[in-house]
């Protein structure tokens, strides 16, 4: 199997089934695996496949982690691999810039891609299919509203440019979710977000819907919030009932009166008191995706396939009955920022989940593999890559966190 990680690389073989079988001949059962990167995704991988695979240990470049335990596995530094040349290595990081750096380091140590090392999403997808006939994805999100309490200049959901301010009808969310779970068996992380989801009047009803029908098919059920609105008791009860994880971002540097350090202290205190799992993102800087109306002027010397391959943003998003490969495009469609029709891209760059769920399972898996895992696209990029700087290493446009734009 050939799967380039370097910028500009393209998968060259055509048949998904052959590629999967080739991969399985190298990375199939009876191998020992070392997982590189103590990441959320590594945790998902190890928890999901610990009965099927022999995970031997973790590798991490962070020296502070050396000798500690991660998911019951000992963490070693990369040079430990020099004394264990037979182990197969799984790179768990999903950010392309980091993946390329790790791949380069492994190559400099004499390890080869598709012989000695591979990627976590391939392991998760192929093993679940081969061993359990399950179609598994690592991640999806769904937006409930385009309204937000903040108005960040460089919001990746394009809040300052949104022309369609509305709450997505509950029935539309439910239907899209149903078609998603008719299409695949399991997702590692399912995130409910906005805008700001705490503004969504049917958040409790939607959470109850997802929790009661699909909780056993979701690894981590999450709500993503800017933390400016306190959690109401009924939502708190549902969050406890369905074991919800909160993703809270710290916008205190924005200077907005609803986003003070005190707000975040109080917000986190409530989560802790209720024993709810949470991630508190305290970024020092953001990457600007640019103004979508200015046609990605910041990266005009980079071709679109180069930009896409450098980014390969792993962030699937359900909008209506459709699945977008990249949430940035999904946000732009939802908020009326992308004003063209998406019809020409259905079945090529965007999946129609209603149709896809009707495809027979074996064919569906192979199509899913090409789309979700390999990200094979007819043009080698998404139409929205024309309007977006992306999350790749070529985008060096860093900006302050949460800078507000006047409404
Ligand atoms: S639209 Fe932007 S974020 Fe999405 S894949 Fe293209 S460059 Fe990356």
Counting DSSP H or I runs of 4 or more residues, the number of helices is 12
How does CATH name the architecture of the largest domain? Answer: Alpha-Beta Barrel
Termini Cα gap: 51 Å
Q: Find the structural class using helix and strand composition.
A: alpha/beta
The CATH topology of the largest domain is what? TIM Barrel
Largest sheet: 8 strands, mixed
What small molecules does the structure contain? iron/sulfur cluster
What top-tier CATH class of the largest domain fits best?
Alpha Beta
What is the count of structural domains? 2
Order of helices and strands: HEHEEEEHEHEHEHEHEHEEHEEHEHHE
Oligomer state of the chains in this structure:
single chain
Beta-strand residue percentage: 15-25%
Keywords:
407 residues, globular, Rossmann fold, binds iron/sulfur cluster, eight-stranded mixed β-sheet, single chain, 12 helices, TIM Barrel, six-stranded mixed β-sheet
